[in-house]
Amino acid sequence: MSNKAKYVKETFWAIASKGAAFIFYYALVYYLLQKLTVERWGEWSAFLALLNVILLISELGISAASKRYVAQARDTVELGGIVRVSLTLRIIASGIYVLLIALLVRPLLTSLGQPEYVDLMQRALLLIAFYGVTDYFKNLFEALHRLRFTFVVNLFEYGLKFLLALVLFQNANQFAGIVNAFTIATGVALLAGALLTFRTVPSLFASSAPPKFMRQVYFYSIPVFLMTIGALVALEIDTIMLRHLRTAYDTGIYATAKNVVMFLPHISVALSMGIIPGLVVFDAAAALGRRQAYYRILVIIVGLYMLIDLGVVAFALFGLNRLFNNAYAAASVPLLALTPFVLFSGISSFCGSLLDYRGLAWLRAINFSFTIIANVLLNWWWIPKWGAVGAAAASSVAFAPYCALNLWQAHAAFAKEDGAHG
């Protein structure tokens, strides 16, 4: 199969994978918005933000860091050993992490002034354990360029989350049914990922890994983990701070606007999944051709996200009232304030993926530190003044330097090889 055909095929499955997540995620959001009041939706959104923080931290950078080594070894005899060792590290890390959360969840939530979420978070411990390993399989299939398997895992995970939530969430005052639905769905997705891995990776238990490979993955996971911390600060801390600094109503309004745009950056992620693994392995002689292909896709992404932003503006002005009831009409203004965030995050996701695969995660982590600092400070400044609109504006402004730095560093990665070739 030609490179172009391979990119098209993998990009199709990447889009299908993200599309499945998109459809079922928003179906669940719509269902909950119809079932809950703004205040109850705000309370669920605040809990989900806390849960997402814990889930993102549970990744510990290991799954994403492993992609670099799996991509480099996908056509070698060491592949089975590399997958076995990195998966073992993933399982051990998840087990230790869940034990720590079980010990710390009560004092942590009490110190945050949200003890009402303790029982729900304890119920979610199994979900936290499943999440990291399931995420590992998704990253593995991306690095192997077997994105049809990522589609299968996402279909099980998000499809079952939605269907099981319809069955298990019967009382609007009890969120335990949603947590149970998420746990069962993620467990089934994990099982599907494991079975597909055993079928796909040759000599999984027989081939050897490079000496001290687990140590390599662990140390490279550190900058990736720092970016995960930055991501949760940039994407979830605003909801948590809004609930703390304002009201459940403000949180519900902001969560409505945020959920409209939450999956839009994943379009860029899908394109990255299908294209970047094929572009990142290059030497000085191949750098120019890879660079030209990279910039052609980047131009397409910029144009695509400008069109998407126009669609978001039109939806905020004319479509929000028609899709949701009048109680959520106030979400239109924060939704407009989030349109720069959509553009910046779409561009930076594509560029950042290249940096990760090229072993430049430390640079990306440094870039993201600007976003972390700016987002927290802007939220503290703007949320008390403007509520949901302030939180939305803080996200958009904070992502601007991260986008610019990722563009520059990705360009430099190719320029370095061009210079070596010259």
> What count of helical segments does DSSP give?
17
Give the strand content: under 5%
Note the main sheet. none
Low-confidence stretches: none
Radius of gyration: 21 Å
Order of helices and strands: HHHHHHHHHHHHHHHHH
Oligomeric status: single chain
Features:
mainly alpha, globular, 422 residues
Describe the structure.
The protein has 422 residues and is mainly alpha-helical. The chain is built from 17 helices and no strands. Helix 1 packs antiparallel against helix 12 (266-279). The longest helix has 37 residues, at 287-323.
Layout of helices and strands:
Blueprint: H1 3-35, H2 38-59, H3 62-73, H4 79-111, H5 118-123, H6 125-143, H7 147-168, H8 176-200, H9 213-235, H10 237-245, H11 248-261, H12 266-279, H13 287-323, H14 332-337, H15 339-357, H16 361-386, H17 388-421
Helix pairs in contact: 1-7, 1-12, 2-6, 2-9, 2-10, 2-11, 3-4, 3-6, 3-9, 4-6, 4-9, 6-7, 6-8, 7-8, 9-16, 10-11, 10-16, 11-17, 12-15, 13-15, 13-17, 15-17, 16-17
In short:
By secondary structure, the protein is mainly alpha-helical. It is built from 17 helices and no strands.
